Amino acid sequence: MNDAAHFEAILTQLGRLLIDLKLTGVDVVLIGGQVISIEAMAAGRPGVIAVETPTGVVVPRGYSMEPDLLFDVEDAGARGEAIVDALRANGFSRIRPYRWLKTLDTGDMLVDLFVPPDLDAAQNPGGFTVLPRGDLALSRATARHLRVGTSAIDIKVPDPVGFLAMKIEAKERLRPQQTKDSFDIYAYVALKGPSTVGKALRTSREGDTLRAALRRLFGEPKAPGVSDVLSYAGTLETTEKELLARAVVDLFDEVNRISAATSGTVSER
Q1: Hey, which of 10, 141, 159, 228 would disulfide with 29, CB 3.0 to 4.6 Å?
Q2: CA-CA distance, 152 to 237, in Å (whole number)?
C-alpha cells in the first residue's frame, strides 16, 4: 500500500476518533507537521509536505503519518477517562502513557496525546505529554472542514502564532539536531503566505520573541534553519540549492518586514 493511501486511511480514522472525542465534551486541537497537510488540503492542495524551489522543483518531506492531539487542560483533567474510552472504542491500544496504536488495513497508525504546560498530575490523569507553548496552540485554534475520500472531517488547527511557537520550541530546545521542524516552519509559512503569518505575529504579544527566533533560524543562507531545509534537497544541483536558500531567507525577511510594521492594536495573547 502506498503512502498516499495510508495517509488517507489515517485521516479517515482520525475523523471518526474526533467525532467520539467531541461527544465527550473535550476540546482538542491537531498539532505537529500534520497541520501543514490539513491546511494544504483545506486549500485544495495535496496533503504531502513539500516546498518548491524558485525554478519549480518540488522538494518533499513526505506525509506526516502520526496525528498529534492537544487537549484543553481543564477538559483533559475532568474527562481523561472519557478520552481513553473513546480511543479504545475506536480500536486503539495504549503502548505508552501518551501514545496509542491502531493497525489499519494500510498499516499502523500512532496517535500521540498532549496537554498544555503549567498543570499538576491531578489535572493530567491520563499521563499525556506536557507540551511547552501548548497554551498558544489552544488560544486561537481555527476549525477546518475537508473531505477525505467519502468521509467529512472537522478538525481544529493552531493559528500561525501557535504553530510557529511550538515548532520553534521543538527546533531550538527539544530536538535541535533534527531537521524536520525547520522544514515544517518553512513549508507552513510558504503555504500560508508571508502576509498572513506576518500580520498574525504583528498582532500578538509573542511577535517580538518569534521574530527573533525566525531571524536566528532563517536570517541568512548559512543559518541553521536554512541548512535544515537544504538537507532535504540533496539531489539538487548547487545552483538550485543556492536559489532555494535565497528564497527561504527572502520569505522570512518579508514575514519580518510585515510583522514589524506599525500596528494600531496588540492582542492580549
Answers
A1: 141
A2: 42
pLDDT of residue 117: 85
For cell 536554512, name the residue. Answer: 226
Q: Which DSSP symbol is given to 122?
A: G
- For cell 510583522, name the residue: 259
Are the C-beta atoms of 187 and 36 separated by less than 8 Å? yes
Please, what are the domains in the chain? 3-157 (3.30.460), 160-259 (no CATH)
- Residue 209's pLDDT is 95
Asked if residue 112 lies in contact with residue 66, where contact means CB atoms within 8 angstroms, the answer is yes
**99-119 b/e with 16+ CB inside 10 Å = b?**
ebebeeebeebbbbbbbbeeb
Q: What is the pLDDT of residues 62-101, one digit of tens each?
A: 999 999 999 886 655 567 788 889 999 999 999 998 999 9
